[in-house]
Amino acid sequence: MRPGVLVRLAVAGTRTDRVRVALTIATATLATVMLLVAATVLAVDVPEPRYQVVLLNHFDLRQTVAATLLLVSLPVLALAAQAGRIGAPARQRRLAALRLAGATPRQVVTIAAAETGVAAALGAGLGLAACLAGRVLLHQRNPDGRLWLPTDVSPWPWLLVLILVGLPVAAASVAALLLRHMQHSPLGVARAAETPVPKPWPLLFVPLGFAVFAVVETRDGMSGSVVLRLFFGGAVTAAGLVLGMAWLSHQAGRLLHRVGRGPATLLAARRLTADPWSGSRTVGVLLVCGLVAGGGLGMRDHYAAQLRIWLRHEPPPELMERVRQGEPIDPFFASGLKGISLAVGVAAAIAAIGVLTALLEAVAARRRAFATLTAAGVRRRVLAQALLWQAVLPVALMMPAAVLLGAGMVQQILPEMYDTVFTEVPDPACTGGACRSEMRIEYRYETWFVDWTEVALVSAAGIGLVALIAGLAAATLRTRTDLQDLRTA
Asked: Which residues contact 472 (CB under 8 A, 6 or more apart)?
């Protein structure tokens, strides 16, 4: 197949296809930026302090920053892997038509891989350009001659090539994997077949990733191998959440069918059990965002527990002044938490666009069923409520668990905190006036965990975001329930 024909067939499609390509480019750009920043931090070798950000001047703190950047990039990478699922039914029907027109299975796979791979490669190029522009803009020195960030360091060449080449190759491979069934028979796309029941085995990745965090030893510092193991554990956990979301949605539908009352809940329950795959993996990316947000909450509460220990003793006057004024004790730590919150927010916003697109596609694909229900007397309000139940219920059940899981994983790698208490104990055998006393040292461990109020707020934010998206999708039901679709759809 000639390159020109391949490009035309790859970019051809509907508005949903263009949205999928745009989301693939956006997620690949953001993932490339975050991975390149982490690779730059890993490449820093500072024999003496030369950066204004003190975290970058110490090996252990620098490795911790790199590990945090890699873990924060997990929602973006998960969304980049699932961006190809948006508009998948319509794309599979389009590619199946090419099969029926005479295209070979290899040509169909090449077209799909070209669409996703080229979009991911364009996103990787934009991410590289953004990093290079940021290096130029942020290459500023203070009066002491110190840089703010390591803009004088470049990532290792092999790691740079791995990021820029591996991301598009992985995206194209996922796109080819999604078309494995179409290679056997293009008629299977148009044939009505029962959707297979999802299996729960992907959820086994979640305890496996948690076990990696539990066994990693961080007392001796954060070496490069420790950072990679933590990234592997986080990636395995994120994969378990994303891939296991279909089974969780199916179980949520069965639960709603058992306890639900009213037509809206029964319609939503039947839809969740009949097609739990629809949009489940994109919603799973929001759970990964909750996972990383829970990790950020755990880091902040660990720091708060450390602050409580400091305040029990005689802290420096400047420290007490910061506490009275409500300023952060460690500005660098506070800025790091803000960066984590910003990255999670951006990933959640992109994932929300993906969820909205998936819901709009589902409403458009079921317009004939909606029109039939409307003709039978079902109100549009009931259909909107069913769509809301279908979108919100799985997230409402799993978002608090994802936030707590992230906080628990962070708790496994953060050091235990204890307060040293010195107690003067008199010698009981001494009865005279000049008695010597012994100094007893007691270590009191500080117990901490994430604040339940914060867990509730983060979970409510995720559930509210999905409810808002479902409301926007339900607003299109008036045009999707036209009775004319009974004759034309």
From this structure: 356
Contact 256, 269 (CB under 8 A): yes
pLDDT of 426-454, one tens digit each?
666 666 556 666 666 666 666 667 778 88
Rounded to 5 degrees, what are φ and ψ at 445? Answer: -75, 140
Whole-number Å distance between alpha carbons of 440 and 218: 29
Query: CA-to-CA distance for 454 and 92, rounded, in angstroms?
Result: 42
More confident residue, 202 or 489: 202
CA distance 362 to 296: 34
Q: Could you tell me how far CA 293 lies from the centroid of its own chain? A: 9
Whether 157 shows a pLDDT value over 80: the answer reads yes
Q: How far apart are CA 305 and CA 303, in angstroms?
A: 5
Kindly report the number of other CB atoms within 10 A of residue 199's CB atom: 12
Residue 446 phi, psi dihedral angles, 5° rounding = -95, 115
- Sequence-distant (6+) residues with CB within 8 A of 363 are 370, 387, 473, 476, 477, 480
Q: Does residue 269 contact residue 260 with C-beta atoms inside 8 Å? A: yes
Residue 51 bridge partners (DSSP): 147
Count Cα neighbours of 461 within 13 Å in the Cβ-side half-sphere: 17
Tell me the whole-structure pTM to 2 decimals: 0.73
